Amino acid sequence: MSGTDTRKNRKTSTILAMDVVGYSEKMSSDEEGTINQLRACRVIIEDSVKSYQGRIFNTAGDAFMVEFNSALSAVRAAIEIQEKVFTHNQNHDGHKGLEFRMGINMGDVVVDGENLLGDGVNVAARLEGIAPPGGICISEIVHSVVKGKVPCGFIDQGTQNLKNISEPVRAYYADTVTGSVDPKQFKHKKTINKKTLYYLVALAVVIAVGSYVFQGMQEEVQNGADFQRIAILPFDTGSQDQNLLNFANGLTEDLSAGFSKAAKKLTLV
After folding, report:
1. Cβ(41)–Cβ(49) under 8 Å?
2. Residue 186: inside a domain, yes or no?
3. Which residue from 37, 166, 184, 247 puts its CA 20 to 30 A from 7's CA?
């Protein structure tokens, strides 16, 4: 395929990704009831998507991927769907109702027939994965477009390292309770990307080697070796992630304390 053909098959779209919370468990405990609830929710989803000029381009069981030409339309549709599903659950034996997580991102996508692919889609799917049950999580670029234009505020979740996404993404929760969890109280389980994992493994090796060195230094000092001063420099994380920065600072302090215990005659600089 030529470069020209590739460019013709790309575009910028807003993607809404959603799926049911705990779908497999619900299917296992009440297959027929869950299927009936999903059918009812699908009607709600299709009606709202149509009213906001969206298009469902992919489905898989309990999951829906929806394309919108407008970020504002995508967020308004998402809020409407969550509100209608919440009302449906209250009116139809709420404890058996379904809850959806939603993620919304605007970005570059690749057109593959009726389907859409690429980072614009992948980020939306990952944002959906960290959204509260019955809640909506949007990317920073979507937030910049819709803030002050929809009937709810947004809760800044800070920069997120999303699974298999190369660059961190700033995320926001819609400040509206349309599920079993208040988004203000919800804390998702954070994933560790490969770069962070490698860094933590490297730190573990440093600590192990450092412990061995401490023991040797203690013996040298006890034997009267002329080794009385050492410099400990802060660790460079290579990241702006505040959790990593705090971890590195704590590690530096722990190393300093370890040196002090291993050889009390050392001067730390």
Report:
1. no
2. no
3. 166
Is the separation of the CB atoms in 67 and 14 below 8 Å? yes
Give the CATH number of the domain where residue 53 resides. 3.30.70.1230
The chain-wide mean pLDDT, for the chain, equals 83
Assess contact for 122 and 163: CB atoms under 8 A: no
pTM for this predicted structure: 0.70
Q: Are 55 and 98 within one domain? A: yes
Q: How many CB atoms lie within 10 A of CB 27?
A: 17
| Alpha carbon distance 103, 17 (integer Å) | 5
Are 214 and 86 contained in the same domain? no
Domain that holds residue 162: 10-175
Residue 212 lies in a domain: yes
Report residue 253's pLDDT band, with 50, 70 and 90 as the boundaries.
confident
Q: Give the CA distances from residue 114 to residues 36, 63, 72, 126, 138, in Å, rounded to whole numbers and listed in that order.
A: 27, 16, 23, 21, 24
